[in-house]
Amino acid sequence: MSRTQDWIGGKWTGADTGATFPVSNPATGEELARVPDCGAEETRRAIDAAHAAFPAWAALPALERANLLMGLYGVMMTRVEELATLLVRENGKPIREARSEIQYAADFVRWSAEEARRVYGETIPSNAPNKRHLVLRQPVGVVGAITPWNFPAAMVTRKIAPALAAGCTVVIKPAEQTPLSALALGGILDELKLPAGVVNIVTGKPAEIGRELLANPKVRKITFTGSTEVGKLLMRGAADGVKKISLELGGHAPFIVFADADIDKAVEGLIANKFRNAGQTCICTNRVYVQKEVCDAFAKKLAEKAAALVVGNGLDEKTQIGPMIEPAGLEKVRDHVEDARRLGAKVLCGGKARDGRWFEPTVLADVPEGAKILREETFGPVAPIVAFDTEQDAVRLANDTNYGLAAYFYTSNASRLFRVMEALDYGIIGANDPAPAVAQAPFGGMKESGIGREGGKWGLEEYLEVKHVSVLI
Ligand code: NAP
């Protein structure tokens, strides 16, 4: 199943220069494959192919596009183990998490297949007896998609499935660390006889590929998941061609525990949320705020559970914490922990790198204001705890960031539940729920965490243009 060539215009191909770059297993350093190191020229050809394929794909009855997507869903479900294993080998996450990522990735495909047939138009009451106003919803056109390494399968399907359902064609560039899952999905689409050029996968030089996607007038929409820094660059670039854009960017999620909460459930929730993918997810907690009365008890229970998490190779069924994706990520985590420790934080468990590839699950207490970890995205398995006094303090601290992707809070007080969910400036809220993301709900951020939404009917909307037709009869 493993594909190591790019998919352009229905053909599996290398870079024009023949250049390749390595994809390695983050748990062992073993080279898994070499994939094409493409640039602007190959991207231009992929865009041409997507542009040529667009009219026929857009004109296909929605039912047929839906059938193709249901086919993809079906094959993904029969190959969960194969796809999950490939995902672990290139990304490092624990195999159990990889299986749920494949399920989550397939859920976007199924939802989009079901929704493809519900792209309805409207008629609007007219002011004049001899006029009719219609609203058509039509595919935007060629989509340029760029995805990150932390969800190598789900970030791909979260973009291509609604795009295909809407009738768009796609050029996708997966992250350099994890292109194999994207290529494997392309392989399945090829087996299912997706027409040539409807989906094109280009691996290689990010800035060159990105520039071509932005500059080429045939691309009408850019969709990106990744860092806020690159997102801003793409937004500036998209302005020149006034392209539609959606951005799913970084986060700095607060996790608030009120004294009235079920503390054991909150500890369990934080363990599940914070340490998933070794803390390398955009919606995982970056700051933990606990009400003073219960803070010590909460921190003690959390540290006990975190210290017991099994660190290892993701392919081992017992592993709960896989390796960091690369040394730079590990260094950033180490820097955040050292900085907090220097400023007076207490290390309740962990605090160190292991074998140069893993970072131990870490709980920090008494983290002072001013610590980097309370401001910058850590992307690692570290839970920094800060005590707070009142509900207003908690909300103020939680909202005091440029990010606005996900936030979590635990309470058993129903009035507080509504007050706090409304007061938090975040696109996704988990209220007593550490895992809010599902394919049918909107996923996306406020402030510098992004623009637009993926998932559910909102995700499909991003790939549609609204056209008003006024008919004089
Ligand atoms: P990144 O450096 O921004 O990379 C993401 C993608 O952008 C990769 O495919 C990368 O290519 C590409 N890229 C890099 N520079 C580019 C450029 N100049 N022009 C065009 N494309 C370019 O982010 P990352 O470190 O891989 O991913 C982690 C970030 O993603 C975190 O901030 C995380 O919070 C965010 N994220 C957000 C969501 C969400 O839904 N909001 C979900 C997952 C992750 P190369 O890999 O080839 O460099």
- Assign the CATH topology of the largest domain: Aldehyde Dehydrogenase, Chain A, domain 1
- End-to-end separation in angstroms reads 57 Å
CATH class of the largest domain: Alpha Beta
Number of domains: 2
Provide the helix percentage. 25-40%
From the structure provided, what is the oligomeric state, counting identical versus distinct chains? single chain
Spatial extent as radius of gyration: 23 Å
Structure commentary:
The chain is of the alpha/beta class. It has two domains: 6-249 and 447-472, Aldehyde Dehydrogenase, Chain A, domain 1 (3-Layer(aba) Sandwich), CATH 3.40.605; 253-431, Aldehyde Dehydrogenase, Chain A, domain 2, CATH 3.40.309. Helix content is 40%, strand content 22%. It has helices at residues 40-59, 62-78, 80-91, 95-116, 154-166, 179-191, 206-215, 228-240, 263-274, 292-307, 327-342, 391-399, 414-423, 456-461; strands at 6-8, 11-13, 20-24, 31-36, 122-124, 131-139, 142-146, 169-173, 199-201, 219-225, 244-248, 253-257, 285-291, 346-349, 353-354, 358-359, 362-365, 382-388, 406-410, 428-431, 450-451, 464-472. The chain has a seven-stranded mixed β-sheet, with helices on both faces. Strands 9-8-7-10-11-21 form a six-stranded mixed β-sheet, with helices on both faces. The radius of gyration is 23 Å and the shape is globular. The termini are far apart. It binds NADP nicotinamide-adenine-dinucleotide phosphate. Residues 146-151, 173, 175-176, 206-207, 210, 225-227, 230, 233, 248-251, 282, 377, 405, 445, 450 line the site of NADP nicotinamide-adenine-dinucleotide phosphate (NAP).
